[in-house]
From TrEMBL:
<dbReference type="GO" id="GO:0020037">
    <property type="term" value="F:heme binding"/>
</dbReference>
<keyword id="KW-0560">Oxidoreductase</keyword>
<dbReference type="GO" id="GO:0019441">
    <property type="term" value="P:L-tryptophan catabolic process to kynurenine"/>
</dbReference>
<dbReference type="GO" id="GO:0004833">
    <property type="term" value="F:L-tryptophan 2,3-dioxygenase activity"/>
</dbReference>
<keyword id="KW-0223">Dioxygenase</keyword>
<protein>
    <submittedName>
        <fullName>Tryptophan 2,3-dioxygenase</fullName>
    </submittedName>
</protein>
<dbReference type="Pfam" id="PF03301">
    <property type="entry name" value="Trp_dioxygenase"/>
</dbReference>
<dbReference type="GO" id="GO:0019442">
    <property type="term" value="P:L-tryptophan catabolic process to acetyl-CoA"/>
</dbReference>
<dbReference type="InterPro" id="IPR037217">
    <property type="entry name" value="Trp/Indoleamine_2_3_dOase-like"/>
</dbReference>
<dbReference type="GO" id="GO:0046872">
    <property type="term" value="F:metal ion binding"/>
</dbReference>
<dbReference type="InterPro" id="IPR004981">
    <property type="entry name" value="Trp_2_3_dOase"/>
</dbReference>
Amino acid sequence: MANDERIESQINKLEEKFKNSGQDLSSYLDGLLYQKYLTYWDYIHLDTLLSIQVPRTHFPDEEIFIMYHQITELYFKLILHEQKQIVDDRSQDLAFFIEKIRRINSYFKALISSFSIMIRGMEREQFLRYRMALLPASGFQSAQYRMIEIYATPLENLVHQSERDSFSKENNIEELFEHIYWKKGATDLSTGEKTLTLKQFEFRYTPRLLRISNQVKSSTIYHKYLQLPKKLRENEELISALKDMDMNANVNWPLMHMGSAYRYLAKENKEVEATGGTNWKDFLPPSFQKIIFFPTLYSEEELDNWGKQWVDHIFNPENRK
Ligand code: HEM
């Protein structure tokens, strides 16, 4: 098609488009005439992005800590973006399901392989000082982390391990939510008193987390899998992708993260209290929490050994340097 013809055809299509919405093409063409060219920095809001790393102390390594948390939250957002599409999907298309889980896994893998930025990338002496200016804030208060769990699996699978057998989908959402594992982790079991870190988190996010829990109460990723026709449910590629996701979210990321807690808080037999106030050595190990998004995909033995490699990981002298 010659250039003139192409432009004419484009104008015709535009005219059609604007007419259909009761709009006047000529006014929009004026807008196009006066509009500035788009730049890279405006498109991605670069100035805003680079202005939100604001340390609370003078220690240079605090900036690394802030930035890596922000990077992680952006990846969490990418993960949620894919999860929401699975939750909303009604097509039961196998390729679509596998592709979304594959993307989620690639985001988790990026996070897992970059965690050395935390484990090895800051001076311990600086960390131990600037963290005191951050009390009682903790990554524990990451709402997106909690949302990833809620979109992945029914709440009964997130109930604390010690009580999980006494709860089922017959319990209402509010009840299940109150017994979620991370609430127990941040509660003094002898007095029943919640940590300030937990109280603040609950005050800010309970309505939102409950709304999402209700919204996905029969459409989490696990539900979506179980609702597939039997033939699709048995697809090996899908099963393997889902198991990878479980491993990434509930074993490998938590292990890398726990590695940083050991590096900074547990050296020389002198434990340091966590800013969120949990008993972190009991709270963080995946084998203690045993959070499993897709439990029927595993054998009894796999379930029993869930996250056991943390022992090897943490006690490997290479990882404790
Ligand atoms: C030097 C680096 C880090 C250390 C020493 C550390 C330490 C801890 C500790 C001790 C806890 C238990 C809660 C508490 O008592 O505060 C915790 C929880 C948590 N942190 Fe970190 N953290 C680090 C980096 C990060 C990063 C980069 C993220 C990314 C967002 C993060 C996200 C979380 C999450 C989501 C939890 C809750 C885990 C769960 O409920 O299973 N942390 N962290």
